[in-house]
Amino acid sequence: MKDIKEITAYLRAYDGPEIKLMEVCGTHTAAIFKNGIRSLISPKIRLISGPGCPVCVTPTAFIDKILEYAHMENHIVCSFGDMLKVPGTNGSISSLKGEGIHVMMMYSPFDVIDAATENPDKTYVVAAVGFETTAPTYALALEEAESRGLKNIRLVTALKTIIPALEWICESEESINGFICPGHVSTIIGSEVYKDLALKYKKPFVVAGFEAEHLLTVIYDIVRQIEAGGSRVDNLYTNAVRDTGNAKAQAIIDKFFTPGPAMWRGLGIIPGSGLYLRPEYAKYEGGSAGLNADMELPASCRCGEVIVGRINPNECPMFGTGCKPESPYGPCMVSAEGACGIWYRNR
Amino acid sequence: MCVAIPGRVLSINGTRAQVDFKGNVVSVNIGIVDPKVDDYVLVHAGCAIEVMNKARADELIQLFEELDELDDIKEIG
Ligand code: SF4
């Protein structure tokens, strides 16, 4: 492998046809900003943000369902912090806090298991949002709930898997030349799973870590592949990602969950892209199916285009004027890993 | 939301491990990994998702410090 100086010099000097690369994962979007990667490479290499923020692609109906539980007596809704500010039809979880709703912010699904053990007369409803990185943590928590015989846990799931979404993007956004694959999703699913997509759409897919050098190396790898007409899958995050992923994690996901159609805000319903509790575990089901309805976003909000990388956030007329993290219009501005929020904080 | 942070395993008791994140010791589920004491594990939402090699773990720790992600280890751990 070349050293990083040569790699950076090459990427800066690149003057071929415009190349559009999608970083699928919100953590990559943040790392690209913090490291000033855009300023280190040629403007002819465009980095665009993908749908890799689970909060941003969660439809309004999910939030409304969660809020319904939060108003119910003896029910406590448990959510990661990211989700709290996302607007539902009648406000966000945070904005309704003063109205006596019951919410517990969780750091780990295991917090819920402990709380549910201590308070058997209350029902704990988990807002189970996430990609493959997070899915095994819910499964592990349910396994613990099983072994403790807990009856007071429910999951409302908005769990999503990345491969069907990438397939959707490959089908509908031909202009993307290569993909920077998510690091920690790939820790679970491995790097080999991208091979079918690489083969079918003849584009490189490269798994990346989060350090500046590694991001640059991944971009270099993809650019060189594109120049040579290549469409390989490379794993450049070998320390955390095995080619076949984490088999135990895959097994426990499969034990508790089964794929089904899921609604992605901005993309629509993608078959097989959601994870739902298996019928054997129906006792934990909080009503996750069919939560597809999405609030109409203000006409000027272009979240849908941001999510698929058709435009950058600063091309939205609301960006930084009508829409800011304190007063978000669209979900992409709310979440810590939403593209608009990241662009706003780094503008 | 898929951030994962490396920490060092101090002790193991069944499916739980005490993991040190730069002095912050947190109890972590290790049901889907097989770490040994002193190994580095990559932790997401209270669960270890992979065992890492130390050299890379240190790099990552430094990176996430730069990203201000370590402010409150609990928030992401
Ligand atoms: S800046 Fe705001 S209104 Fe515009 S796309 Fe982003 S979230 Fe939507």
Q: What are the salient characteristics of this protein?
A:
heterodimer; A: 347 residues; alpha/beta; Rossmann fold; six-stranded mixed beta sheet; five-stranded parallel beta sheet; globular; B: 77 residues; alpha+beta; SH3 type barrels; 2 helices; 5 strands; 22% helix; disordered C terminus; binds iron/sulfur cluster
Note down, in words, how this protein is organized.
The complex is a heterodimer of chains A (347) and B (77). Chain A is an alpha/beta fold and 347 residues long. Chain A has a single domain, classed as HypD, alpha/beta domain 2 (Rossmann fold), CATH 3.40.50.11740. Chain A has 14 helices and eleven strands. In chain A, the strands form two sheets. A six-stranded mixed beta sheet of chain A has the order 4-3-5-6-11-10, sandwiched between helices. Chain A has a five-stranded parallel beta sheet with strand order 2-1-7-8-9. In chain A, helix 1 (4-13) crosses helix 10, helix 5 (109-118) runs parallel beside helix 6 (135-148) and helix 6 packs across helix 11. The radius of gyration of chain A is 20 Å and the shape is globular. The two termini of chain A are 33 Å apart. Chain B has helices at residues 54-66, 73-76, and strands at residues 5-13, 16-21, 24-29, 40-44, 47-52. In chain B, a hairpin with a 2-residue loop joins strand 4 and strand 5. Chain B has one domain (5-76): Roll (SH3 type barrels), CATH 2.30.30.140. In chain B, 22% of the residues lie in helices and 42% in strands. Chain B has 77 residues and is α+β, with helices and mostly antiparallel strands. Chain B has a five-stranded antiparallel beta sheet. Chain A binds chain B through residues 25-27, 30-31, 34, 52-55, 80-82, 107-111, 129-131, 133-134, 136-137, 140, 143-144, 182-185, 187-188, 209-211, 239-242, 246, 248-249, 252, 335-337, and chain B through 1-4, 29, 31-33, 42, 44-47, 49-50, 52-53, 56-57, 59-60, 63-64, 66-67, 74-77. Iron/sulfur cluster binds at residues 301-303, 306, 313, 316, 318-319, 323, 329-330, 332-333, 340 of chain A.
